[in-house]
Write a structure and sequence with these properties.
The chain is of the alpha+beta class. The protein has 3 domains: 155 residues, no CATH class; 57 residues, no CATH class; 148 residues, no CATH class. Helices cover 59% and strands 8% of the residues. A 5-stranded antiparallel β-sheet has the order 1-5-4-3-2. Strands 6-7 form a two-stranded parallel ribbon. The longest helix has 42 residues. The radius of gyration is 22 Å and the shape is globular.
Length: 381
């Protein structure tokens, strides 16, 4: 790589505040924030689907980490326009030892395409890979259900292994999913004279796993699905469980943030037009968050009603048909969840709990405009 390009690539070592420990990022990162292509290769690189339908054609890029990253003050100069979040590509120096750090580049920073091509040794189908990165950068998060549907609609069909939940999220979801599907587990195992804890545990583990295997056979029989249709149904079901689990903890945080937006003290002089915008934006954001919440709940109710019909009315047909149609809902659902999650997480990052709620006029404008742009529903006047 030319020395000039290497100087412009930002090192991602343990001193970097975002990736101060790539090893820890690999272990604990949430699915919606990190796409760990190193782990995906380690787990599924031997599978025919991985070789036949890679996410990226360039092998260096296809074994990188992709991170949805809050743009900090020392990153702003890299971009032509101000932005609150960006898609960061981290190329480790050694894929087997992430503690050694790596090099990183943001999608959309000045000269990013040449920097990335050089970092990836200029091999592979760079035009196609760069196009996929631009698609990913359009999304508010990396949640696999939103990501897959977004890529599929633009003609990119990658192997299923790229759309798995992270180990950290799978561990955290176990208890929630067990409660959500307890009645269905009882239904699937009704012919065995009761459900033991071991059956429930195996069913939950299988449902959250990357691959669909024989442990889900009782569920397949209950839904009367075969082959790829069953795999698609399980993927859709897992998506709704993921969103419900995410929102369980997000709702109370979002309510706190909405209240704090109303209490934010904005210091500094402003002209009348700016003052009106800031006050109107507070009200619009608080109302917009509520509208987004209601839209999300309406979509989730479609799932809840279909599931209720399955377990209460023994109607597998309606639930089966719902699951097979469900991916079309992931685009709007994932974008809405990603937008409100961004509002909650960025606000709490900027204003930690218990600290004074104050911001300059310029900063308040940036925050409010960013939040308003991310909401997918028309904001109330």
């Amino acid at each position: 790589m030319p020395a000039s390009a290497r100087r412009r690539l930002k090192p991602a070592r343990t001193s970097d505040r975002v990736t101060r420990s790539l090893r820890a990022l690999e272990r604990t990162a949430s699915t919606s924030r990190v796409l760990n292509l190193i782990a995906i290769e380690a787990e599924g690189g031997h599978k025919p689907e991985y070789l036949q339908a890679p996410l990226f054609k360039n092998r260096v890029l296809n074994t990188a980490l992709i991170v949805k990253h809050r743009v900090r003050h020392d990153d702003i100069y890299l971009f032509e326009e101000a932005r609150a979040t960006a898609t960061k590509i981290i190329i480790p120096f050694d894929r087997k030892d992430l503690s050694l750090g790596g090099q990183s580049v943001f999608v959309g920073q000045r000269g990013w395409t040449n920097l990335l091509i050089d970092a990836c040794n200029g091999a592979g189908e760079s035009a196609r890979d760069l196009s996929v990165l631009r698609m990913i950068d359009q999304l508010p998060s990396l949640d696999p259900f939103l990501l897959r549907e977004h890529l599929r609609r633009q003609g990119v069909f990658a192997a299923p292994c790229y759309f798995a939940l992270s180990p950290a999220d799978v561990d955290a979801m176990q208890g929630f999913v067990a409660m959500e599907i307890a009645r269905l587990i009882a239904l699937a195992y009704r012919d065995l004279g009761g459900v033991g804890e071991i059956h429930a545990t195996r069913m939950v583990e299988a449902l959250l796993a990357t691959d669909v295997d024989g442990r889900l056979e009782p569920l397949r029989e209950t839904l009367v699905l075969e082959g790829d249709s069953f795999k698609e149904g399980v993927f859709s079901w897992k998506g709704f469980l993921y969103y419900k689990w995410t929102l369980e903890s997000l709702w109370p945080r979002l309510a706190e943030v909405a209240a704090e937006i109303g209490r934010l003290a904005i210091r500094g002089e402003r002209d009348p037009e700016t003052g009106r915008y800031l006050e109107d934006a507070r009200r619009r954001l608080q109302g917009g968050v509520l509208v987004e919440r209601n839209a999300i709940l309406r979509t989730l109710k479609v799932y809840d009603d279909a599931f209720e019909g399955l377990v209460e009315n023994n109607n597998p047909r309606a639930f089966r048909e719902f699951l097979l149609r469900a991916p079309e809902l992931f685009l709007s659902l994932g974008e809405r969840v990603g937008a409100i999650s961004h509002i909650s997480s960025y606000w709490r990052y900027r204003f930690p709990s218990g600290e004074t709620l104050t911001a300059s006029v310029e900063e308040a404008l940036d925050i409010f405009m960013d939040f308003e742009a991310g909401l997918s529903v028309p904001l109330p006047d």
